[in-house]
Specification:
Blueprint (H helix, E strand, L loop, with lengths): L9 H24 L6 H15 L2 E2 L12 E4 L2 E3 L13 E10 L2 E10 L5 H19 L7 H12 L5 E2 L5 E3 L6 E5 L16 E4 L2 E3 L5 E3 L6 E3 L5 E3 L2 E5 L4 E3 L17
Antiparallel strand pairs: 1-4, 2-4, 3-12, 4-5, 6-10, 7-8, 7-9, 9-14, 10-13, 11-12, 14-15
Helix pairs in contact: 1-2, 3-4
The structure holds 2-amino-4-trifluoromethylsulfanyl-butyric acid (MF3) and cobalt (II) ion.
Length: 264
């Protein structure tokens, strides 16, 4: 069942790591640019400059016609937001999703930035979504089933009562942005493949304060929550390892649940 999922050898993983490191660097630099008063178009333009400076390829620009240099998704936008005239305000959250290509190898990562003074329940949402990502990464080890990754995310998030987005999922990544397998953020009903060392997964929980249901705006990209509730998105590219996922898009964590008094 896992025959069609590529496994990468250590030399290939080193190349993926280079793409992952560039992806993480760009993501963090753009995150530092987000502040009250900037438009999402300005964030996109800043990302374009950083990509130029890094001299790497852009995994999203032109992908299936996607027009942005990154995805920039504010508040109720779950994913695939396109930079436009929307102004970022104090108290908003901005999800940034960045994919870089280096020597034909892909990296993909995302995080949600709190802007200024963000409501307590929203900060909890960010901390829980980021922790959910790491719960998934921990399970990305050889001998596990992919369902262990998906289930760890679902099991961690469920008690908080947040919405777990189902229409968008993580994915394999490597020589293309999207490879096999799909990586849902919940235990699916069908059987999932066993994990082998060297499989590369983009794990990306998308979690909301309300419904799990999303709708796509007429631009055919922007996915918003059906009830207008706010959403968070954290993503890493990881290699399945002997004892857990090796993160190829390493970055510091932002919000630790214990700092918000959330018990794990
Ligand atoms: N991280 C998202 C994904 O892997 C971003 C894709 S944006 C797209 O699907 F424009 F490239 F589709
Ligand atoms: Co992705």
């Amino acid at each position: 069942m896992s025959d069609h999922i590529p496994t990468r050898n250590p030399g290939e993983i080193a190349k993926l790591k280079r793409a992952g490191e560039v992806s993480a660097r760009i993501l963090l630099e753009v995150a530092g640019f987000v502040k009250p008063g900037v438009t999402t178009a300005q964030i996109d333009a800043f990302a374009a400059e950083v990509f130029d400076r890094e001299k790497c390829g852009n995994a999203f620009l032109g992908y299936a016609g996607y027009p942005g240099h990154l995805c920039v998704s504010v508040n109720e936008v779950v994913v695939h937001g396109i930079g436009d005239s929307r102004v970022v305000r104090d108290g908003d959250i901005v999800s940034l999703d960045v994919g870089a290509v280096v020597d034909g190898w892909y990296g993909d990562n995302a995080l949600t930035v709190p802007v200024g003074n963000v409501r307590e329940d929203v900060r909890r949402l960010l901390a829980v979504t980021e922790e959910a990502l790491y719960r998934g990464v921990e399970q990305a080890k050889q001998g596990n089933n992919l369902a262990d990754v998906c289930g760890a995310i679902e099991d961690y998030v469920k008690p908080f009562g947040f919405g777990i987005v189902r229409d968008y999922v993580g994915h394999g990544v490597g020589r293309k942005l999207h490879e096999e397998p799909s990586v849902p953020n919940y235990r699916p009903h069908h059987r999932l493949p066993h994990l082998k060392r060297g499989m590369i997964l983009a794990i990306e929980p998308m979690i909301t304060l309300g419904t799990y249901r999303v709708k796509v705006l007429p631009d055919e990209w922007t996915a918003v929550t059906a009830d207008g509730s706010w959403a968070a998105h954290f993503e890493h590219t990881v290699a399945v390892g002997a004892h857990g996922g090796e993160i190829l898009t390493e970055r510091p964590r932002t919000a630790l649940p214990e700092q918000l008094g959330i018990s794990l």
